[in-house]
Amino acid sequence: MTHTRRIARLTLDAEALAGDMANADRFRYSDAYSEFTCGSWKGSALCNGSGDLYDTRIVDYEGPYQVTEHGRQMPYVLDLIGRHFRTEHLRFVRLGRIAPGSVMVPHRDYLELDESLTRIHIPLHTSPECFSSDGETIYQMALGDVWFIDAAQPHSAVSFATEDRTHLILDFTTATVEEALAFTPDADAGIPEEVTFPRAPLTDAQRLALEGLSAVVDTHNYRDVLALVIKQYFRSDISVAEIFDIVERIAKNGGATEAAERIQWLRTHALVTRLD
């Protein structure tokens, strides 16, 4: 499998997409995987193994994919997929929406599956105030960009915007990115430098301020503390491991033993193996 990279940029039909997105605004979304969100990330299944529009979890299944009722209400998006991708390898199509002010806990996907999938993201509604991460690299995906996301590696996202960010998320059973595509991708340049954002070192004052949250942390607000540290990760040179280290230390120093244990659980669940 290759690394996260921008594959191409599609020219989207604004009018047709607007019609689909108006329908999507009326969808009922699932909060599956909410443990990986501080704030709100919600999903809507357009294609999956069951045809159930509320079935948004990624699980192994036999047979071809089924289009859900939500999928049938997005004809332009389904046509876009059919024209640009090899749908014989397609397993899941979802909309993923991040609400303003929300962050994704850095995590690895496919830990619960027998094999990893090939994941594609296409932003359908986004903002210059939305950012993604691949390990220690912070970058942006623009409207209509086609990205391969190495979801088996730690990754995250944040929205500092004032509207929901909506991505089309596709998963394929292919060994390479190229096998999922019905077009020739751009040359592999990884994550282009022009869409990355360098981060300044975390200052001693900033670290002291964060760790001062030990005075107020408890089991009711530790996820708010986690969200704050993740948002700082998008601005300052903090590693994924340091995010969990800092929050766990804040909880322990504040005597919030249960909160520290929950952070330890979440680190394992998100990055090592799925826990019950």
Write the layout of secondary structure elements.
Elements: E1 5-9, H1 14-24, E2 37-38, E3 41-48, E4 66-67, H2 69-72, H3 75-84, E5 90-98, E6 103-104, E7 118-125, E8 130-134, E9 137-139, E10 145-149, E11 155-159, E12 165-172, H4 204-211, H5 222-233, H6 240-253, H7 257-271
Antiparallel strand pairs: 1-10, 2-6, 3-4, 3-5, 5-12, 7-10, 7-12, 8-9, 8-11
Helix pairs in contact: 5-6, 6-7
Instruction: Say what oligomer this is.
Output: single chain
Helices and strands, in order, run as: EHEEEHHEEEEEEEEHHHH
Rg (C-alpha, Å): 19 Å
The total of helices stands at 7
Report the uncertain regions: none
Span between termini: 28 Å
User: Strand sequence of the main sheet, in spatial order?
Assistant: 1-10-7-12-5-3-4
* Total strands: 12
Produce a short descriptive summary:
The chain is 27% helix and 22% strand. The protein is of the alpha+beta class.
Question: How does this model look, in words?
Answer:
The chain has helices at residues 14-24, 69-72, 75-84, 204-211, 222-233, 240-253, 257-271; strands at residues 5-9, 37-38, 41-48, 66-67, 90-98, 103-104, 118-125, 130-134, 137-139, 145-149, 155-159, 165-172. The two termini are 28 Å apart. It has 276 residues and is an alpha+beta fold. The protein is globular, with a radius of gyration of 19 Å. It contains seven helices and twelve strands. 40% of the residues are buried. Strand 8 (130-134) and strand 9 (137-139) form a beta hairpin. The chain has a seven-stranded antiparallel β-sheet with strand order 1-10-7-12-5-3-4. A three-stranded antiparallel β-sheet has the order 9-8-11, with no helix packed on it. A two-stranded antiparallel ribbon has the order 2-6.
